[in-house]
Amino acid sequence: MKTTGLFALCFLAFLPFMLASCVTSVDLVEVIQGASDRDRKLLPETEWNKLGIWQRVAEQPATYIPHGYGVSAPRGESDGKWFVDKRDGKRLFVPNSEVGEFSNGVLVGEATKIVGQGSRQYLYTRPGIMVVP
């Protein structure tokens, strides 16, 4: 009786690993591509600017700077970095310094998320196989 119980425990312990090995790389590629397609969807400004970090300062192309950064403040290469959304052309400027309560790192992270850069996910499906959408 004890041997059967031990076998059952071992079987249950390794069951997730056995099931995971049944998933094919193709299945995982489809899942990643589906998530990737959702990431590419353009959201309205009310969605991506929920926190009110960005203010629009130009129309063609739509250009944004952080609230609290002067509209006439410099926006050259030495002053910060431009992030451009390849889907619709909107541009966001992130100054090298903190603006209000937002550090440069937070602004860079938000801008990157908004324009869809750096959203590439890497997933290892089997030892030695990496799937890149």
Structure commentary:
The chain has 133 residues and is α+β, with helices and mostly antiparallel strands. It has one domain (24-131). It has 4 helices and 6 strands; from the N terminus they run αααββββαββ. A hairpin with a 4-residue loop joins β1 (54-58) and β2. Residues 24-35 and 119-125 have low confidence and may be disordered.
Q: Choose one word for the global shape.
A: elongated
Structural class assignment = alpha+beta
Number of strands: 6
- Mean pLDDT reading: 76
Strand content: 15-25%
**Count of distinct structural domains:** 1
Q: What is the N-to-C succession of helices and strands?
A: HHHEEEEHEE
Radius of gyration: 23 Å
Number of helices: 4
Give a quick set of tags describing it:
single chain, about 130 residues, alpha+beta, 4-stranded mixed sheet, two-stranded antiparallel sheet
Short description:
The chain has 4 helices and 6 strands. It has 133 residues and is an alpha+beta fold.
Topology:
Layout: H1 2-22, H2 25-40, H3 45-48, E1 54-58, E2 63-66, E3 80-84, E4 91-95, H4 104-115, E5 123-126, E6 129-131
Parallel strand pairs: 2-4
Antiparallel strand pairs: 1-2, 3-4, 5-6
